[in-house]
Recover the amino acids of this structure.
């Protein structure tokens, strides 16, 4: 008489490697000795530091997260879905688990006894090959595109030898740093620094950071006689202080120090100057923590004197992206680092363009990246979309001033083309007369988009709400941002048009849960991951963030994370959207790196069954977030 439970386990396992390599009788033997484990949401299967179990596990239904705990903070490293194997550590090491396996939703896993399975490793070449390839390629499943690199995450990836991984982990820093008030006398602050053997003191007001005094300030301002030792802190401090969140990585810390030319970063509760101080990061902390880092690329960018040198940096950046993905770096971390280097490349191109013209800009201006660059999501070398805003001038000066900036933009864009960034096919470029204009004209342009939206231009206008001011005068940035924020507030008609545009792009599954693929053309039967999966999440995040007056946060992942913070009752959905977005971006980035393309189209025939499952799992959050949008925004207000 057949065991129905064992038969069910066998029928499931036979679809996934390495079990798919086993004979029916062998698979039934394993299944008969296996157990079915039901996990409630947040229930722990095994914990980092626990002794290894006698079983390893396969996810049947639901999802199990693998996380690493550092300084009492649990960081999600990987998510295991249907068919994924976890708990393989006993095959490779006898010591305790390094990571915690926790159910992210109600889940069912199969526990497979290691001693029952072990004979098939030596007795079945395909099973042995699977495990050896997994181990050698740092992959739980070497045939699984999206999970590349995950097996080692349970075993040795966080060993001291893996400097690249360490570099993207949270940096260790001084907690509860010494602080002082703005009216404190410098002499006493200097004594405190000396007695405490510290190189900096945070100056605060009402428990909020307003500046910093460092050893460098003492040398440059006091030792030189510029200011008296009896001066108050406010006269000596550097302000504003650069603030960062508590979980910042080594890489991000170094990038910010280089970007702002500072030697210290102030850690606050939420990463802004509007929350209390919780720590301080020094250059010494970064130097002590880092090894071979992308900071070198940033320095090379700043020293570049030609487009050829900038192109070299961008090519090395592609290598860095590939290496980071291979080494399990979370896609959100990769995006942050790549964005800073991409910005540095554009800024250097602007500086070189000014040098080439030979005369300085006639008035102040800002260069604005829009679209994927504006969202800091350009992991692949895709199109450049940009615009330029110059400060208001007298009418008789307008044409000459504009002519200068259009010439400047043309040179910058030419530089970036040589680096590898093709110009926007839609001519969304700062060299276009339409997208190079004065601050007042830009305010009028945004007023038109916001107050008189129309279906025909809503798609065009959307891209201009994903902006990032990367070069120029902060006063212009502030004026335009404030103007947009004021006009967008509670504008029902504007949000109705945005919502209608979001809902035009439904989840990419047909009635029978088949992928919706291209029906004709060059990419017939391919899946358009950008248009059908990524863009619906980008559009939804933009709409919801703008509706809550979150103008400055433009990155899709960070928009969803901020939404989760602002709306706790919907936090689970927003977190799922953020996670789905990262998964989709990883698929696209790997496809683009493999084929040296923009990664837009996936050949579904090249995906494993488990890859297809993971891809489909990202579609449910799209459906759920669109349902929320249908209920929240009144599409009927469009007239």
């Amino acid at each position: 008489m057949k065991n129905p439970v064992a038969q069910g386990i066998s029928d499931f396992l036979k679809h996934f490697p390495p079990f798919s390599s086993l004979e029916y009788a062998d698979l039934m033997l394993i299944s008969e000795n296996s157990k079915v484990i039901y996990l409630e949401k947040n229930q722990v299967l095994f914990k980092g530091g626990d002794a290894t179990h006698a079983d390893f596990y396969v996810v049947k239904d639901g999802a199990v997260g693998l996380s690493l705990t550092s300084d009492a903070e649990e960081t999600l490293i990987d998510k295991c879905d249907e068919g994924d194997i976890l708990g393989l550590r006993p095959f490779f090491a006898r010591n305790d688990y390094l990571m915690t396996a926790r159910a992210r939703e109600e889940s069912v896993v199969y526990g497979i006894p290691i001693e029952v399975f072990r004979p098939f490793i030596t007795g079945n070449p395909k099973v042995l090959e699977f495990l050896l390839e997994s181990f050698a390629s740092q992959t739980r499943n070497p045939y699984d595109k999206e999970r590349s690199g995950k097996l080692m995450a349970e075993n040795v990836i966080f060993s001291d030898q893996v400097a690249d991984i360490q570099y993207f982990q949270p940096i260790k820093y001084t907690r509860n740093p010494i602080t002082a008030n703005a009216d404190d006398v410098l002499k006493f602050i200097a004594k405190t620094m000396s007695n405490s053997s510290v190189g900096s003191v945070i100056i605060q007001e009402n428990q909020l950071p307003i500046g910093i005094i460092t050893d460098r300030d003492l040398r440059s301002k006091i030792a030189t006689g510029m200011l008296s030792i009896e001066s108050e802190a406010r006269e000596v401090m550097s302000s504003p202080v650069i603030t960062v969140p508590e979980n910042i990585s080594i890489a991000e810390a170094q990038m910010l120090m280089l970007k702002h030319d500072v030697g210290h970063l102030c850690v606050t509760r939420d990463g802004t100057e509007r929350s209390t101080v919780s720590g301080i990061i020094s250059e010494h902390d970064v130097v002590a923590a880092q090894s071979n880092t992308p900071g070198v690329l940033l320095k090379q960018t700043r020293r570049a004197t030609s487009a050829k040198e900038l192109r070299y940096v961008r090519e090395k950046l592609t290598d860095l992206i590939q290496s980071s993905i291979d080494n399990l770096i979370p896609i959100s971390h990769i995006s942050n680092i790549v964005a800073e280097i991409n910005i540095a490349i554009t800024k250097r191109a602007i500086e070189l363009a000014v040098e080439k013209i030979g005369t300085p800009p006639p008035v102040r201006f800002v260069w604005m990246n829009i679209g994927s660059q504006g969202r800091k999501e350009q992991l692949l070398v895709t199109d450049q979309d940009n615009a330029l805003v110059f400060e208001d001038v007298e009418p008789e000066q307008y044409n000459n001033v504009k002519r200068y900036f259009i010439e400047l933009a043309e040179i910058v864009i030419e530089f970036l083309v040589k680096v590898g960034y093709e110009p926007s096919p839609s001519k969304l470029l700062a060299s276009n007369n339409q997208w190079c204009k004065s601050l007042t004209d830009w305010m009028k342009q945004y007023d038109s988009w916001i107050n008189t939206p129309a279906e025909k231009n809503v798609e065009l206008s959307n891209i201009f709400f994903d902006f990032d001011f990367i070069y120029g005068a902060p006063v212009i940035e502030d004026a335009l941002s404030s103007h947009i924020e004021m006009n967008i507030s509670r504008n029902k008609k504007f949000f109705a048009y945005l919502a209608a545009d979001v809902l035009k792009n439904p989840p990419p599954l047909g009635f029978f849960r088949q992928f919706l693929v291209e029906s004709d053309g060059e990419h017939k039967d391919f899946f358009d991951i950008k248009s059908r999966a990524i863009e619906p999440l980008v559009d939804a995040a933009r709409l919801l963030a703008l509706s809550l007056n979150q103008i400055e946060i433009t990155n899709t992942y960070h928009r969803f994370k901020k939404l989760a913070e602002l709306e706790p009752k919907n936090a689970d959905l927003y977190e799922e959207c953020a996670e789905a977005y990262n998964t989709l971006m990883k698929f696209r980035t790997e496809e683009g790196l493999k084929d040296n393309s923009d990664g837009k189209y996936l050949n579904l025939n090249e995906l494993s069954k488990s890859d297809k499952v993971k891809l489909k799992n990202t579609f449910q959050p799209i459906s759920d977030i669109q349902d929320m949008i249908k209920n929240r925004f009144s599409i009927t207000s469009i007239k």
Notes: Residues 331-357 form the longest helix (27 residues). Confidence is low (pLDDT under 50) at residues 135-143, 145-166. The chain is about 45% helix and 15% strand. The CA atoms of residues 588 and 599 lie 5 Å apart.
